[in-house]
Amino acid sequence: MNETTSPISRIAESIAQNARVFVGIWLTIVLLVILFKGIIPGWNNQTGDFNNYYTAAALVMEGKEIEQFYDNTWFSKEAHDMGISNGAKFAPFPPLTAFIMTPIASFNHDTARWIWLIINLSLIHI
Question: What pTM was computed for the model?
């Protein structure tokens, strides 16, 4: 900066530098929250609605009747038979939601969950 720069220009430049630092810190915090509250739990945790949608899609792929999905005992048993130990429940989801995961239902549960997480992470950039 030369000595002929006006005080207002110096203040504006200082504000711009501080804003860049603030945005950098803010983005770092947001990315860390996404990592520790979303990515890591999503990669390691087998609970949540994914089990419900995945089980429903896998059962659709097997040709099961959607009406049966609303019987929680039957649905949970089917999920358990697929290796989903943390349970699953289809009610109160609308019938069309049984088709959401059909593109990845041919994979085993963990692989499908990881694919779904990667798809979701990719959509963050859009």
Answer: 0.68
Cα 78 to Cα 80: distance, rounded to the nearest angstrom:
5
First-to-final CA distance of the chain? 39
Q: Where are the domains of the chain?
A: 1-44, 46-126
Rounded CA-CA distance 91/81 in Å is 19
Listed in sequence order, the residues at least 6 apart from 108 whose beta carbon sits closer than 8 Å to its beta carbon are: 83
**Token couple for 93:** 């989801």
Cβ–Cβ under 8 Å, residues 49 and 88: no
d(CA 114, CA 120): 10
Rounded to 5 degrees, φ, ψ at 8 are -65, -40
Backbone angles phi, psi at 30, to 5 degrees: -60, -45
> Tens of pLDDT along 26-78?
999 998 998 888 778 877 776 678 888 999 999 999 999 999 999 999 999 99
CB-CB contact of 100 with 74 (8 Å)? no
